[in-house]
Amino acid sequence: MAAEVGPLQRLKLASGPSSITAEQRYWRTFKNQLIIPTPTEVPVTHITTPPSIPNSENSDLFAVTAGPRVQVYSIRTRKLVKTFTRFGDNARSGEVRRDGRILVAAEDTGKIQVFDVKSRAILKTWTQHKQPVWATKFSPTDLTTLMSASDDRTVRLWDLPSSESTSVFTGHSDYVRSGAFMPGTTSNLLVSGSYDNTVRLWDPRTPTSSSSVMVFRHHAPIEDVLPLMSGTTVLASAGNQISVLDLVAGKPLHVISNHQKTVTSLSTASNGRRVVSGSLDGHIKIYETTGWNVVAGAKYPSPILAVRIITAGANNDDRHLAVGMQSGILSLRTRLTGPEAARDREREKEMEALLAGTIATHDRAKNKRKKQAAATKRLDIVGEGADVVIANDLSRTTREKRWHKDLRHGNYKGALDSVLSINSREPQQDPLEVLTMLVALHHRSALREALEGRDETSVLPILTWTRRHIIDPRYMTMCVTVGTHLVEMYAKYTDSSTELAASFEKLHNHLKAEIEKARKAAVTNGMLTTILASLD
User: Fold this and answer.
1) What mean pLDDT do residues 358-381 have?
2) How far is it, in rounded angstroms, from Cα 193 to Cα 187?
């Protein structure tokens, strides 16, 4: 039995450089933006998530602080769960403990309050701070330990059963606006950033626990500090710069200067492999943690005061990109996965088809896929019985194109005319089909046969196609071969045909311009090579 004749396979061209990187493509998957305005349009100053501990019970909640209230949202649904308003002044740094049962928040009066999340009852109140408290954090390892940083220039360590602070750190000489526990095995250490331009590391176990064990001085007030998961590196935002501090070497490793205004907030992403920064210039930027290069970014309509990557799942995958702005807007962008991402891609394709005016073709293809899926499902059901039906292909046979048929029957000239739509009213085929046809003719040693014996009307479309694609590296080899044959066969007729002469002249001028561009590029490359060599 003779094998079924199939259509000629289209060539697969090498992909050119992508307009977007893999990192940019990843961060663009954070879609489905939810805009949440605060009730009185007060700035969103803090967005906090509890530290995620592997193989332990992690909270499904994150806290947003804006004005005199702390709002708690569900990570899974993005819906408001609880609102806490029992504050005498602006609230600061509301944070839910990792088990989701307790919330801590401070306020500008210096008071720190601990709430039961379920009943919103106040469980504990501390009033040792006498000025606004800007940071409150739960320990990542001990459920009853937390820290605070205040404008009274102190950092304090607290224990929930106790009515007094267990440790007071007094090394700063100005407002302390940020602080955090170190992660992992170094969780007994604290780091704080102050408006005295210093970042200090504290160890409660030292005999003189009130003094810092390490100090890093900067050129501007410290707005935020962020310990990385390694436990040996801390990031600190000072002015429009971010410094990378090595605790082992005791010195800065790198300074990041990609923002134009003050960097107000820092967050980790991708399990510590990326860092996100937010600034008063309205930009967020994402950095890789090897060379600290910017890999992606986004612009927001208002100065950014808080940014946080909210994780979910057993692997702590990035789920939401939360941004709090000066205008009182909370922006939540969610990364779609699985069926949600598939539905979103389908909606994008449908919108592109609608804008391009090809919605009818899109709908036909969609209905065809649905019919094939339904037929496959019916086949699976039939196969569960005693009699199994086996089918090779459930789809309809594709109608053979005319140029495929001409090529199969050895009508090479007619095949080339068909693919270029010469002497027909059909629209010209796409360039890749023309290239596929020319390569097939070349492999059959029939390219010259397909090109010879033509008149002016049938030669001009071939010349035009060659001129348009000869500068594309993926088409260049075949275009040069076709162009050489055309010059040998038809250049002698240019005296009797003005249109043919003009077409050859356009091809010549096109090639001449490209050669000049290549020459200038080679000269520029040589100059750059010399400059770079001198810098080394």
Assistant:
1) 77
2) 17
Neighbours of 226 (CB within 10 A): 21
Task: Give the pLDDT confidence score for residue 388 in this predicted structure.
Answer: 52
In our burial notation (b when 16+ CB lie closer than 10 A, e otherwise), range 398-436 reads eeebbbbebbeeebbbbbbbbbbebeeeeeebeeebbbb
Report the alpha-carbon distance of residue 178 to residue 133 in Å, rounded.
9
Give Cβ neighbours of residue 364 (< 8 Å, ≥ 6 apart): none
Is residue 1 pLDDT above 50, yes or no?
A: no
Q: Which long-range contacts (CB under 8 A, 24 or more apart) does 458-462 make?
A: 458/417, 458/422, 458/423, 459/486, 459/490, 459/500, 460/499, 460/500, 460/503, 461/420, 461/421, 461/422, 461/428, 462/416, 462/420, 462/486
Q: Where are the beta strands (DSSP E) in 186-340?
A: 190-194, 198-202, 214-217, 222-227, 233-238, 241-246, 251-256, 263-269, 274-279, 283-288, 294-299, 304-312, 317-325, 329-335
Q: How far apart are the C-alpha atoms of 179 and 185, rounded to whole Å?
A: 18
Question: For residues 373, 375, 376 and 378, what is the CA-based torsion angle, rounded to 10 degrees?
Answer: 120
d(CA 87, CA 108): 9
- 3-class secondary-structure state, position 395: coil
pLDDT digits (tens, 9 = 90+) for 330-348: 999 998 777 766 776 777 7
CB neighbours of 27 closer than 8 A, spacing ≥ 6?
Answer: 286, 296, 298, 321
The DSSP 8-state label assigned to residue 213 in this structure reads S
Question: Judging by beta carbons within 10 Å of its beta carbon (0-12, 13-18, 19+), is residue 20 exposed, middle or buried?
Answer: exposed
The token pair that represents 288 in the structure block: 């890789």
Burial of 216 (0-12, 13-18, 19+ CB in 10 A): buried
Q: What is the pLDDT of residues 492-505, one digit of tens each?
A: 888 888 999 999 99
> For residue 8, what pLDDT is reported?
76
Classify 480 as helix, strand or coil.
Answer: helix
Alpha-carbon gap, residue 235 to 238, rounded angstroms: 10
Which amino acid, 437?
M
What is the DSSP code (8-state) at residue 184?
G
Residue type at 233? T
DSSP for 7-45?
A: PPPPP-PPP---SS-HHHHHHTTEEEEEEEE-TT---EE
How many Cα atoms within 13 Å fall on the side-chain side of residue 376? 9
Report residue 389's pLDDT band, with 50, 70 and 90 as the boundaries: low
